[in-house]
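Our preliminary data section would be incomplete without showing what the modeling component actually yields. Below, a chain of 327 amino acids is followed by its predicted structure, encoded as tokens that our downstream tools consume directly.
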Amino acid sequence: MKHVERSRENLKYTIDSRHPPVMEVEVGESFTLETEDAPSGLYRTLDDAARLLDAWYLKHSPPMANPVTGPVYVRGAEPGDTLAVNIERVEIDAQGTTYWRPGHRPLGDSVKWAELSKPTLVIGRAENGQVIMDEVATWEEGRVKRHPLDLRVRQSPFIGTIGVAPEREVETSVLGQGSWGGNMDVRDISAGVRLLLPCFHAGALLFVGDVHACQGDTEFYGTAMETRSTVTLRCDVIKHKSVPYARLEKEASLIALASARPLEEAVTRASVQLMEWLVQDFGCSQRVAYLLLGVNPDFHIHVYQMAPIDKLRYTVGAEIMKGAWFR
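Predicted structure:
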């Protein structure tokens, strides 16, 4: 199986068609990519809380965070096709990290929530299907202070940033989002799922990174449990058909994605794009598609990402469970 290691030359901070491919694969060929965590491996121990205010990646605008591995050139993919990325496996590192610092919204500068105004770093251990957090570090009065913590949450590994090179734009791996994918932090982009992306270049040019060991809906303070990983993928190409925006196919459901501000605009776009999918691919009439969203209790809206970071838009998924209507 072809494999790309986590190395400086293989990590990118822009999603750009001009990057030379790190790998070429055939349609249907499984391959693995090693990814770095969002802070580029800078926070590996609690003592690294001392670096939260002067991290090197913060000295760039926008920050040089959220590196991606790629691009991967998929032979046979052409502009106007759809790239179907099958997520076969997401293996996470033994540890992850989450953190915040003054200025982090929504509560980093709150007087009421004064405990959150200190630079804070948490290291989580991946163990027996859980992420275990038993200590937290803060940077106060010129030194690292450690505080006991007793928190366990279940692992739910997924790929936070995945996409193909846009047609003309150069997007950063930390703020870029669009029909082509990007930093959307969709918890459902996990093992066993098929992600559909429109192709804009020969080879599709796929980038992958920002894996999370676990995350709550909205990624409320802008950082999840960030971790290194090894992902195994397999790509198919749907010729001469292009999806309007990233879509997910799960075993039991379909999810149309959209990123926009304000939140209600993202909800509307995702919902309408789901309706279009039902009409075009599943034989629903416009009336039936509308009814399925309005009266079907198996229609759901997910707010995957609503982090108040710079120009980052909010990512929503409109999901419908497969049922009697599905054929």
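Residues 80 and 242 are 5 Å apart (CA to CA). Residues 250-321 form a domain with the Endonuclease I-creI fold (CATH 3.10.28.20). Preliminary results of this kind motivate Aim 1 of the renewal.
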